Amino acid sequence: MKRKSKNQSKNQSKNKTLNFLRYLGPGLLVTVGFIDPGNWASNIAAGSGFGYELLWMVTLSTVMLIVLQHNAAHLGIATGLCLSEAASRYMPRLLKDLILLTAMLAAVATAMAEILGGAIALQMLFHIPIRLGSILILVLVLFCAFTNAYKRIEKLIILFVSLIGFSFLFEVGIAKIDWGAAVVGWVKPSFPSGSMPVILSVLGAVVMPHNLFLHSEIIQSRQWNLEDSSVIEQQLKYEFKDTLFSMIIGWAINSAMILMAAATLYQNGSGKQVDDLTVAGKMLSPLLGNAAMVVFALALLLAGISSSITAGMAGGTIFSGIFNQPYDIKTKETKRGVLLTMIPAAVIILFIRQPFEGLVYSQMLLAVQLPVTIFTQIYLTASKKVMGKYVNSRRLNFLLLVIAVIVTGLNIALLFV
């Protein structure tokens, strides 16, 4: 047997790396959904009100998210169907309609947070009133949604994610972080008095229901041959790496938000939370220098625009799935789904008196809907009729059920609080 030359091994390794880099996109497109303005509000509330104590929720949520996003993408790769389409095809009609209706409401709540965050950023940067800013963000997002192909949107959003990440690395790099307390906070569960609504909002902001629908749809934009088992196996392998890589980036950025708030805004256990993103930016200015306010507002604007695009795509995906149709911005089902997500979200903003609370509670509502989406996903991916030979293993089903029970338990705890 001939041994491979060093050059052949290097070339194969290089080809694998290039293939993976070409594949990157779906995970990062989803990542921007959980570093949106709703996350900003939830994380700043967590850090400013409870210091480093709620960092564990970001860790737990990200671990759950990796499992759930990979499972959702697994469904898309193995079946060629998104979560919404699969529910329409394999679940009773009435149950399917109820599930997807709640998912649409979650997408609207998400879009509201995204648009509102972008509008707050416009107010901070250019003193544009929030209601007018919301309309401007809405128009821009609809233009992007109706004129851009997947590839163009992916590149745009990857750029936004990179800019947001560098923005927060800049902030954390110049803030005085208590890294000992941070390490403990990342791994030790803690439930300080009055923290349950914030814990649920952090959960909903990271494990966003609409992202599970979106990932199972955009993973199909690669247009591979579903009849070829070797192609499916390769896509499953690359998809997991893409998901893991992207979710770790999301964990780092979400953690950086809490670290930043804990280091600069936490008031020694007083329990007082910063309840205004504008105030948060102004409070950072004297502590982190004159550039901090601009960096904060610019990153918020980029997060609002990019995550609004993905929220609209998710709404289009869910609504199209109700009619057992794939996402296609040229079809009337997808167009209506995008409009039914974005326009009501913008209208709701007109009636919100306290924007920061609107952001936090919108994320908490996502956590309330989350068990419905998770149990639906388990039902579909655990079915051999749906997944064929790519059906979930017993170990994966057990892990998914544990996640569903934890999320449901946290929701029940919120009711008692």
UniProtKB/TrEMBL annotation:
GO cellular component, one term: plasma membrane
Main location group: membrane
Alphabetized GO MF terms: cadmium ion transmembrane transporter activity; manganese ion transmembrane transporter activity
GO biological process, one term: iron ion transmembrane transport
Statement: the UniProt record of this protein carries the keyword Transmembrane helix: yes
UniProt KW keywords: Membrane, Transmembrane, Transmembrane helix, Transport
Membrane-traversing stretches: 20-38, 50-68, 98-122, 128-149, 156-175, 195-214, 244-267, 287-316, 337-354, 360-380, 396-416
Classification via Pfam families: Nramp (PF01566)
Membrane-related topology note: Multi-pass membrane protein
Subcellular location(s) of the protein: Membrane
PANTHER family: NATURAL RESISTANCE-ASSOCIATED MACROPHAGE PROTEIN 2, SOLUTE CARRIER PROTEIN FAMILY 11 MEMBER
Protein name according to UniProt: Divalent metal cation transporter
The organism's taxonomic lineage, starting at the top: Bacteria, Bacillati, Bacillota, Clostridia, Lachnospirales
